[in-house]
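Standup notes
- DV: blocked on the single-chain target, sequence here:
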Amino acid sequence: MILEVTLAVQQELESRAAEIDTARRQHVERTRYEVELARRRYMNVDPDNRLVANSLEAEWNEKLRIHSDAAAEYDRRAREQAAALDEQARLRIRELAEQFPRVWNDPRVPSAERKRIFRLLVEDITLQKGQTTITANLRLSGGATRTLVLPRPLSIADIRRVKAEIVAEVDHLLNHHNDPEIAEILNGRGFRTGEGLPYDPRKIHDIRKNHNLSSRPDRLRRLGMLTTRQLADHFEVSQSAIQKWGRQGLIKKSYHDGLRDLWEVPAEQIVVKGRPGRPASAHLAPIGTPLSE
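- DV (later): unblocked, structure below
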């Protein structure tokens, strides 16, 4: 991940800088130690031995000069190094900030990776629940703080609750369509369930049951449609005769779901049975048709 790589590089730079700083500081300590040795030798020399005393004094002064130069060089390099690290950090942070939205919103990045990024950025969070909002107080890894006010998420019951306009639309569509057709129509119009899922026949069935909506077959029955058995009983013929009339186009099938058929009751028609010279049968004929031809 870009965030982890950036932090790793930054840590490597800081580690190397610390190693260099340690080496320079040790050099300054060595020169200070040499100054102390030179001082002791000078202080222990016999004052009457002017030649040796002058030589040791000159050595002491030289060691003092070397130590002073080393300490000044250490301070100068330390300031330069700190400035360089700060500039590199700013450049990498700027690069990270520019790429972070792309990485975070990339659909190929799994949720687990987003959680790892979040843990690297956020130190802790304090939540305060209100009636309709949640206040989140964030403390970032760098010490900065942020306060966010967010709407409270809906409960499972609220998410699964069907909107009134969807119920009304299903009720209207049931006058002309069955459950699978209604699901296809709603999906085609871009509607989704509370969970953000497309509609299917089962969900339409649940909407009907939960809101006491009559099914398409029940509505057709109220309009006078009859099942195959009911229509056969009405004309006192077999169910196979009803199916035959349907294939011949003599009666109209208004509904079929694989389990049952609903038929319109033909008006102004009678059943003619046992036509002379033919096997016993039954067929529809307009009212007024003679019983024999």
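- Follow-up: Residues 224-286 form a domain with the Arc Repressor Mutant, subunit A fold (CATH 1.10.10).
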